[in-house]
Amino acid sequence: MTSPLLPPSTPSSTSTSSFSSISTPSTTSFRFATPSSTSSSHSAQVTTEDRINSLKEEVERLRAQLGDKDPHKIVQKHIELLHTYNEIKDGTQALIGKYALMTNSTIKDVHEELELPLTD
């Protein structure tokens, strides 16, 4: 009995399949690699080692780009800048709201008048 995954070792001459014109050599066989195969585990190990080495190189490149700066201080500075931005934006929105009340228009109309985006 032949396995459904493996082709017959010799081509069938009585085949009525539409693929009968395709000839396969009698030496053709499909073999699946087992997980314990030493060649595949070796190539996987080399690939893993290459990946580790490339990641280490990327870490070193990013550290060099960062320089002697303290990452914590950089994050703190960004947080301070975001707070400042948000305070300015909140104040601007309050002024736009008051201007809209004074001119009996909507905030949307003021945004369009000043060519400001309606979303963040």
TrEMBL record:
<feature type="region of interest" description="Disordered">
    <location>
        <begin position="1"/>
        <end position="50"/>
    </location>
</feature>
<comment type="similarity">
    <text>Belongs to the SWI5/SAE3 family.</text>
</comment>
<feature type="compositionally biased region" description="Pro residues">
    <location>
        <begin position="1"/>
        <end position="10"/>
    </location>
</feature>
<dbReference type="InterPro" id="IPR010760">
    <property type="entry name" value="DNA-repair_Swi5"/>
</dbReference>
<keyword id="KW-0234">DNA repair</keyword>
<feature type="compositionally biased region" description="Low complexity">
    <location>
        <begin position="11"/>
        <end position="47"/>
    </location>
</feature>
<dbReference type="GO" id="GO:0034974">
    <property type="term" value="C:Swi5-Swi2 complex"/>
</dbReference>
<dbReference type="Pfam" id="PF07061">
    <property type="entry name" value="Swi5"/>
</dbReference>
<protein>
    <recommendedName>
        <fullName>DNA repair protein Swi5/Sae3</fullName>
    </recommendedName>
</protein>
<dbReference type="GO" id="GO:0000709">
    <property type="term" value="P:meiotic joint molecule formation"/>
</dbReference>
<dbReference type="GO" id="GO:0010772">
    <property type="term" value="P:meiotic DNA recombinase assembly involved in reciprocal meiotic recombination"/>
</dbReference>
<keyword id="KW-0227">DNA damage</keyword>
<dbReference type="GO" id="GO:0032798">
    <property type="term" value="C:Swi5-Sfr1 complex"/>
</dbReference>
